Amino acid sequence: MHRSIRTSALAALTVAGLVFGLSACSEVTDAAKEKATEEVDKAVDKSMNEKYEVTYEVTGKSIASIQYAEGGGTATDPKLATVENPTLPWKKTVTLRGIMPPSVLPLAVDPTGDSEVACKIIYKGKPIAEEAGKGAASAAGCVAVSPIV
Questions:
Q1: Alpha helices in the chain (DSSP H)
Q2: Residue 126, SS3?
């Protein structure tokens, strides 16, 4: 009888140890999750606020206007600027922030069908987007994913 009480007591202590051990693991896991979440939040905040420069380049014939993201605003509602009847070749360097996509949209119009338009977005000396178009009315929209995400 004493033996079964000792066995039962030992079993109860073992179960209690497992319960306390598992709850300690749970606390460590929760702490690890919290730390990981904090690190991810810091990385997202940094990338949302990090600034980067791109250069827009536009070439062609009969270009009537160029619309481009000039910085400011938000990624879903960027501040846009427009240049009417630009001198070609046209080049503009802008500073954007976070996940805001760089974009430039030149529009060419020539009733004889002889318009040409080409655009590039340059980041750190390398093109990250290029487009071209021809015709009576043509557009070449260059849009790229933010290079810092």
A1: 2-49
A2: strand
Q: How far apart are CA 64 and CA 83, in angstroms?
A: 9
Dihedral angle computed from the Cα positions of residues 22, 24, 29 and 30, in that order, rounded to the nearest 10 degrees: 120
Condensed to tens digits (0 to 9), the pLDDT of residues 57-83 reads 999 999 999 999 999 887 778 899 999
CA distances from 107 to 58, 63, 104, 140, 142 (A): 10, 6, 10, 7, 12
Buried b (16+ CB within 10 A) or exposed e, 79-116: eeeeeeebeeebebebebbbbbbbbbbbbbebeeeebb
| Cα–Cα distance for residue pair 51/112, rounded to 1 Å | 43
Half-sphere exposure of 51 (CA within 13 A, CB side): 8
How far apart are alpha carbons 136 and 115 in whole angstroms?
A: 6
Task: Give the separation between CA 52 and CA 58, rounded to whole angstroms.
Answer: 20
pTM to 2 decimal places: 0.69
